[in-house]
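Hi support team,

I'm filing this because I wasn't sure whether my run with flavin-adenine dinucleotide finished correctly. The job status page said complete, but I'd like someone to confirm that the output block is well-formed before I use it downstream. Pasting the exact inputs I used:
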Amino acid sequence: MQFYLNGYAPGDPDVSKARLPDAVDVLIIGSGPAGALLAAQLSNFPHISTRLVERRDGPLQVGQADGIACRTVEMFEAFGLGQKLMREAYWVNETVFWRPSKQDRHRIERTGRVQDSEDGLSEFPHLIVNQARLQQYLLDYMRNSPTRLEASYGLEFASLTVEPDGEHPVVVTLRDVAKGSETTVRARYVVGCDGARSRVRDSIGAVPRGDYANHAWGVVDMLAVTDFPDIRLKAAIQSADEGNILLIPREGGYMVRLYVDLGDIDPNHREAFRNITQESVIETARRVLHPYSLDVKSVVWFAVYQVGQRVTDRFDDVPADQVASRLPRVFIAGDACHTHSAKAGQGMNVSMQDAFNLGWKLASVLEGRAGPELLRTYSAERHAIAQGLIDFDKEWSKIMASPPKDPGRPELGGVDPEELQAYFVKSGRYTAGVATHYAPSTVLTAEATRQDLARGFTIGMRFHSAPVVRLADARPMHLGHAARADGAWRIYAFADASGKRLRDLAGFLVESPASPVRRFTPTGADIDSVIDVRAVFQQGHLDLKVEELPSILMPRKGCFGLIDYEKAFCPDLDHGPDIFDLRGIDREKGAMVVVRPDQYVSNVLPLDAHAELAAFFGKFLLDRH
Ligand SMILES: Cc1cc2nc3c(=O)[nH]c(=O)nc-3n(C[C@H](O)[C@H](O)[C@H](O)COP(=O)(O)OP(=O)(O)OC[C@H]3O[C@@H](n4cnc5c(N)ncnc54)[C@H](O)[C@@H]3O)c2cc1C
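And here is everything the job wrote out:
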């Protein structure tokens, strides 16, 4: 067996490496959470050629982030991965607070215990699982997708140029890490998901702005024996004089992560942090945990994680003064755009949300459903979210790291346990990832003029799922879980009291030449492939007949013209308030809730606002006949 003729290549020599084509639609640099999620989403589109290149010699095996916000699990459910994640992960149901004992300030004592996420915030829990596992789920998803997409490892982004025109105007130079040789790939679009030190970011002249005095944490994933009683609960532990720890129980029942706060780094003396060892971090942890013991049996991963709070000035290659005249071709996502403390557990989550925002937009443009102007909304929307995240993170880190108030010496300041706990609860929506709120815009997010019709589906926020019963097969389920990460828009029509407005809407969508479903669905494509219409009726499923549903709710699809029976739902009347009450739907008038492919509510309209609905989609979708 002969191999390595043209240079060393890591991995199994029996597995042939897919050659990178000379030209692709989307070239993604970096297979971290942002790159893997984007690649997974695009891998679903057989007509879009996507490549994911990564400079490591294989998938990440251990370490880095581990917090998975409720919103991220909601998003994973659209990839069919929510249940798998929940099975493997640790569930953060409650958080405890430990502070110096009032009797003896050299000992810590439990001062509070709170529910981690407030009731009803999401149908999914806050989870903890290794970033490497989460990335693997996405890599497996890609491999099973219609395009059978595989990451290309050992390839490093070196540089790019954007030519003024041409089909594939972005010319990228990649370096083979093992051989040192260079190749050129042309792409229609390039996305730099290459982390905090992004070279793609540098190559488009975007600049991270903010705090360069990094904060440092010693992070240790360990298997240990301890008499600290809350070792299987997330715990914020603050000692009087030895510093503070964030303790995160990990998946599998035994492993635990300790974040030991090492304080701010003087940018002029970074070398001090390079000398920090895992032994010294564990020693600090032991002192903070006093009087409890910590017998470390195995260190699974150790890092000194240093990060500053920074936001890049723009997330695409178009400088501010050219926004009106140029369209973006290169984007950045994830840590390339924003970095912040690890303590609020946001990095990996927000990075994947960036990618989810961008993925469907790229797919829409590349499939010819929408004009390329849609791509301008990515930087505009996500930059505002990143800035909000940094503002939140600054406040959060300050409060979480503040020394505990010493009742004997109030003049020294600090935060008392009740204050800290109250702040934690108040910030719950943010840390769960469900506080994202896109501002009204000319294209994607409507002004909230008819929010009164569906008060619980806030325009600009994520579609907050609720329980329903699917009519055709009487299956109790969550309405939001019917949506896949397939790039389709969704109209959820909530029936009015008489049902007449809903029937009229169904008729308009199927029959009228002005119907956005008719205008924007390509000839020959399934009727729900661009705009997927679903309805929720007011009566229970036993009081409604499937055979009386309008045709848009029982569409014929696929090469055999089979009937899709999964478009009509009824309230779940057996378990507490129904979806109309939970989400504040006007029972008399009903409502139409328009939801983007990344699950954010774009518009709430009356059921009879046919012209307004058509005009809304007409702003960015292209006629396809
Ligand atoms: C060492 C380390 C420790 C961390 N520890 C924690 C933690 O304890 N808690 C926490 O919440 N967060 C932590 N983070 C941050 C968290 O992992 C990130 O917020 C999250 O991974 C962001 O995802 P991303 O996809 O944007 O970037 P990353 O996960 O950084 O992924 C970037 C990918 O791009 C690849 N890449 C970089 N440059 C190139 C190039 N030129 N060519 C090709 N590929 C390239 C990298 O190898 C990497 O796979 C850590 C990050 C690092 C790097």
